[in-house]
Amino acid sequence: MTDAGLAVRAFVPHADSLxxxxxxxxxxxxxxxxHAHGFFEGLVPDLMxxxxxxxxxxxxxxxxxxxxxxxxxxxxxxxxxxxxxxGTHQRIFERLGAHVVEHEGVPGVHFAVWAPNARRVAVVGxxxxxxxxxxxxxxxxxxxxxxxxxxxxGEGIAYKYEIxxxxxxxxxxxxxxxxxxxxxxxxxxSVIARIDNFTWNDAAHREARSTGxxxxxxxxxxxxxxxxxxxxxxxxxxxxxxxxxxxIPYVRDMGFTHMELMxxxxxxLDASWGYQPVGMFAPTRRFGDPAAFARFVDRxxxxxxxxxxxxxxxxxxxxxxxxxxxxxTHLYDHAxxxxxxHPDWNTAIFNFSRNEVSATLVSNAIYWLDVFHxxxxxxxxxxxxxxxxxxxxxxxxxxxxxxxxxNREAVAFLRRVNELxxxxxxxxxxxxxxxxxxxxxSAPTYMGGLGFGFKWNMGWMxxxxxxxxxxxxxxxxxxxxxTFGMVYAYTENFMxxxxxxxxxxxxxxxxxxxxxxEWQRFANLRAYYGFMWAQPGKKLLFMGQEFGQSAEWNFNxxxxxxxxxxxxxxxxxxxxxxxxxxxxxxxxxxxRDCEPEGFRWIVSDxxxxxxxxxxxxxxxxxxAPVAVVSHFTPVLREGYRIGLPHAGRWREILNxxxxxxxxxxxxxxxAILAEPVPSHGFPASAVITxxxxxxxxxxxxxx
Length: 703
What we know:
This protein is α+β, with helices and mostly antiparallel strands. Helix content is 20%, strand content 26%. Strands 14-15-18-22-23-24-25-26 form an 8-stranded parallel barrel, surrounded by 5 helices. It has a 6-stranded antiparallel sheet with strand order 1-4-3-2-5-6, with no helix packed on it. A 6-stranded antiparallel sheet has the order 27-28-29-34-31-32. A hairpin with a 2-residue loop joins strand 5 and strand 6 (62-67). Helix 3 packs parallel to helix 4 and helix 6 (355-371) runs parallel beside helix 8. The longest helix is centred in the C-terminal third of the chain and has 19 residues, at 567-585. The protein is elongated, with a radius of gyration of 30 Å. The N and C termini lie far apart (92 Å). Residues 223-579 form the Glycosyl hydrolase family 13 catalytic domain. This is 1,4-alpha-glucan branching enzyme GlgB.
C-alpha cells in the first residue's frame, strides 16, 4: 500500500496486456507491462487492501480472467506457527500440505510447506506449467513455513515444490512431505487430493473395538503385502477396490481378526517393500487414490476385521525428490552421519530432537488413526531408533554426555505417539518390532515404559524355527529352544510373529524349513502351527504360509494360489482356519495371553521323546482349561501319561494329524478320560496316544 494507492504487481506469462478488475467486472486500472515475459505493475487508487480483485489478461489468442493469488490473505495463523515450532501441533496434516478449500469465498487449494532455510519456495504443477515464477510462496517467519492460496484449482493436479537453498542454489523439485496422494512410480510428483469427504459405515466396528482389554481379546493377524498377495492380468497390481472384494472376504473366512498391511505409504522402489517411504501421508498410488484406500478400510471394518499399518518413522530414503536436504540443509535428519545416516539401509535417520520433525511424525501417526480409521500401528525397526550405536562400531556413533547409548529423543517420541494413540483412539493397538532386551517396551509410560500395546517376540520366532529346522532325531539336543520363551513370556505383552522377514533372502518358506520327505514336512508344519496357536501371545502369520507356500516370497508376483488345489496344501489351509476359529471362541486360549495365570507346564523336560505338554487357562473357574500336547518325532507313541487338573472327560478339540488336514488320522477317538491318579504335579492324569509329528488339544468338559 502506498500513499497513491495499492501497488499491484503480477506475473502472467503470454499476456500482452493486463488489467485489474473487480469481482463485479468493474475496471480499476490497466497495468503497465514491465517485462516481455509477462510482468506487469501499476497503482490502483480505488482498491482497498484486503479487497479481492481479478486480473484480466489479453493477447492475440483472446482474453481470460484469473484471481491474483497474492490478493488473498494468509490461511495459517500465529497459533499454528507457535504450536509447530514448539513441537506440540498434533494435527499438522490439517495445516500443511495441499488442501482443497474455499478461501474468502473463492474455491482453490491452500499449499503450505516447512522449509525454514530456503531463500525462496514456489509451488509448481500442471496448473501453472511448472513455472516457479508464478506461485512463489510467502514465508511465515515465526515457523519457517511457506504458504500460498492458489485460486480456481482443485483435485487431481500434480505438483511439487521448487526450492532455492540458503546459498542460492536451485534444488531438485521436491514432492510434498505432507502430500496426501502421489503419481504412480516412476513419476514422483504429489497429487492434490481431498481427505475430508470419505464415507464411513464402520461405527459398529469402532464401538466394539473400544470396549474391553486388547490383551484379553483374541488377536490373530494376517500380514499382507498388497502388491503380491495376488496380481491381475499381465501381472498388474490389483486396486484397493479389487483387494477389498477378494482379500477381505478371504481373511475373514480364514478366521483372522486383523490384517497387517506392509507399508502402504508412498515409496519409489518396489523392492523396498514400502520400508523406504517418501510420502508418509500418502497411500501408495500403486493401488489407487486415498478415497479408494478409505473404502478398503471401511470394507474390512464391515467384515469385522481390524486393519494395522506397518509404520516406518525410523528413517527415510535419500531420493532427490524426497526429504533429503529438503531446503538445502539436513532439515529432517542430523547433519553428522554418526547420528543421521543408517549404515544398514543407506537411509537418513529422522532428527527426533527437532521439534518440527517430531511433531510431523506424531501427526502422521494420528493422521492414519483418525483420517483413515486405522486400528493400529506396527512400528518398524524400533531397535534402530532406541540405540545411538545400533549397527555401528566404535567411533561411528556419538554417545550421550554421560556416555550412554540410548536415543533419548527417539524414546520421548515413541512415548508421545503411544500416549496420544491410546488416549485419542480407544481400542487402538500399537505394536513394536523390537529385537533387543530393552525393558518395558509394552509397559505404560507412567511406569517408565515405551507405552506400546504389544511387542513382537523375535526371540521366540528364531528359537522355534531353529528347533523345527532340525531333523527329528536331533531335536532332543535342542529341546530348550521350544521352552526358553516361557522364561520371559510375561516380561512384555508379546505377539508371536512368523513374518515376511522369515521367508526371504535365502531363508526359505516356513514349509521349506521343515525337514524330511513330503509327509514329514507337512506334518511338521501342522504340528508347529498347532504349537504356536496354543502358546501364550497374540499371533501373526505372513500371507501364503497359511496354505504352506513352498517357495520364498517374491514381491514381484502373486502368491502360488494354485497350490491350494493339492490336498496337502489345502489341509494346512483348513488347519489354520480351524486354529483361528478355536483361538477366537476358546477363552482359555486367549483370555490370559499376557498373564502368567494363563499357562502351566505339564511336561517340559521330555527331550528324549521331543514331547511338550502344557495347560492353558482363562483365570476364571467358568472357563474350561485346555491341555495341549506337541510331539515332534515321526513315531506313534501310545500309552503316554500326562497330568491334568481335573478327572473326567477331556474332549479332543483339535488334532493336527487329522485326515482332513492331510494327516494319518491317529488320535484318541475324540476324547480322553482322566482318572484321579496324580502325575506331573496334578491331581489327575490320562493315558493318551501321541500321533507322530502332531499337536493335540484337549478341552475339559465338566459334568
